[in-house]
Amino acid sequence: MDKVRILPASSKLAGDILCPPDKSFSHRAAMIGALSSGETLIHNFSFCQDTWSTLYCLKLFGVTIQTYPDQGVVQVTSFGKNGLSEPPDILDVGNSGTTLRLIAGITAGIQGLSILTGDQSIRQRPMKRIIDPLRKTGVVIGGRNGDRYAPLYVIGKNPLRAFHHTLEIPSAQVKSCLLFAALWGDGPSFIKEPILSRNHTENMLQAVGGDIRKQNEVIQVYPEKELVARPFHLPGDISSAAFLIAAALLIPKSHLVIRNIGLNPTRIGMVRCLQRMGAQINLFEVREEWGEQQGHLAIEHSLLNSFEINQDQIPSLIDEIPILSVLATQANGYSIIKGAGELRVKESDRLHAISENLNQLGAQVNETDDGLVISGPIRLKGGKVKSYHDHRIAMSMVIAGLIADAPVEIEDIECISISYPNFFQDLQKIGYKDFKIISDTLA
Ligand code: S3P
Prior knowledge:
The protein is α/β, with parallel strands linked by helices. The protein has 2 domains: about 5-20 and about 235-440, Enolpyruvate transferase domain (UDP-n-acetylglucosamine1-carboxyvinyl-transferase, Chain, Alpha-beta prism); about 25-235, UDP-n-acetylglucosamine1-carboxyvinyl-transferase, Chain. Helix content is about 30%, strand content about 30%. The protein has 13 helices and 24 strands. The chain has a 4-stranded mixed sheet. Strands 2-15-17-16 form a 4-stranded mixed sheet. Strand 12 and strand 13 form a beta hairpin. Helix 2 packs parallel to helix 3. The longest helix is centred in the N-terminal third of the chain and has 13 residues, at about 25-35. Bound molecules: shikimate-3-phosphate. Shikimate-3-phosphate binds near residues 173 and 342.
């Protein structure tokens, strides 16, 4: 297993860089390409472990997929949703919850048997949240341990029963799973979301001709229209950029421009939170394409005040809480995160992982049932921490290491390639080079 030794940053970070491509969009663009008839060219695709898992599963449905990683391009060729066929092998999603939950919605409409599973972490993540609502479509579905966990089996059918469902958890993965299943409905389906989560699936389905409407809290899916392939130019990933943003805010004299970031309001809760904390972070040249805003961000080193975030805000920054917690250790006052119980069932129990690691480095973090209370500013010390095999925990600890007063060693950092394979290269590009990767495989 690889580890990394991070030395405190000795000088400012600066640069004008492109944001790494968005993982959430990449999954969806490939899946929607498979559901649309024709050739879908996807530009600025995020080639990382999770999206490779999605491409692998889609190929098992008989879709033709060509990949050009050097150019960031994927081409998906499909006969459309009714041309997808029973997978001849198990759908192995690796570490990717988005792949498993969204693909499950697709398997519901494919006649025949699909088996979905993944790595050890995936097999401990909750699946009842998709199994129960998918049953409303008349599909036969179940999972291990009383429907709690993967492996899952699905015996799909076409058409499916149209359904009404109110989301109990504000999860874009559950919502997207149901949006996909609703495409095979024998009439319109209605999905109510009391708390808004990222709406990329809705926007992208509309972009390929899907009849998706939104009235108040209810998304209506009218399945008659055929989906027709179109090219997608994907924006950069705010959830990956978040680590660079945090580094620039924390290190004196830093100034960074990050270009081509997806700025959908359902995704930029962290930017809004940082602005309330007093961070100098500005959006500029914002434009909209297929319902998705994108633009650039300028970030300056800033002194930060503490923050409070509650349940309604969580979906818009759900993946950014680990790195926001690192920032909270340097903010003036008590930062309070509430209503974030979902973090306990991500790639790791993130509330536990963050508090253990940050406390190990001398921070003052208290874990509550559904959140964290972090007091700051506190000077972090060096030490050894763990990634918990969770990419976002590993990268958050790297950034903590930049501002600690002695080296920080992070174990098991291979997981970073789950979402951001070029993380260390990008840190180098903006001027941070004082790290050493110690690889067991090279030893
Ligand atoms: C994602 C939605 C979020 C997020 C995950 C990606 C998506 O999960 O944490 O990393 O692409 O839909 P939930 O919707 O389950 O909270």
